[in-house]
Amino acid sequence: MDLAKRDLKVHEISKQIKIEQAKMLKRFKTISEKKSKNKYLQEIYNNYKKFKDDIILNKKNQVKHIKSLLKYLEKMKKENSENKTLLNKLDLEEKSLNKKISDLKYEIKVINKETKSRRKK
Fold this sequence. Notes:
There is one protein chain. By secondary structure, the protein is mainly α. The protein has 3 helices and no strands. The protein has helices at 2-34, 41-79, 84-114. The longest helix is centred in the middle third of the chain and has 39 residues, at 41-79. The chain starts with a helix and ends in a 7-residue tail after the last helix. The mean pLDDT is 90.
């Protein structure tokens, strides 16, 4: 029971982190659109940009590490090709990891799209 409570707490904290990141990225977009009119916003803009870049770098690193896990799973599948139960588990894990990669790439795309400022010429 304690494990279930812990998992719920971790899920809730993860959800809050995503909400806060979304708020920060929205502020970044707002500031990036207004910084040209207010020289005092430049430093704040730089801080938000660093935050955004750190989020993207973190997600790219997660993709990289998941890909290395996928390579390891492939190796395990080759070494244990006769164990059907293990192969089924490895296949499920592979699908889960591929979905995570897809989700991370989508999140990166959304962050870049959502924080792109529209400059008027």
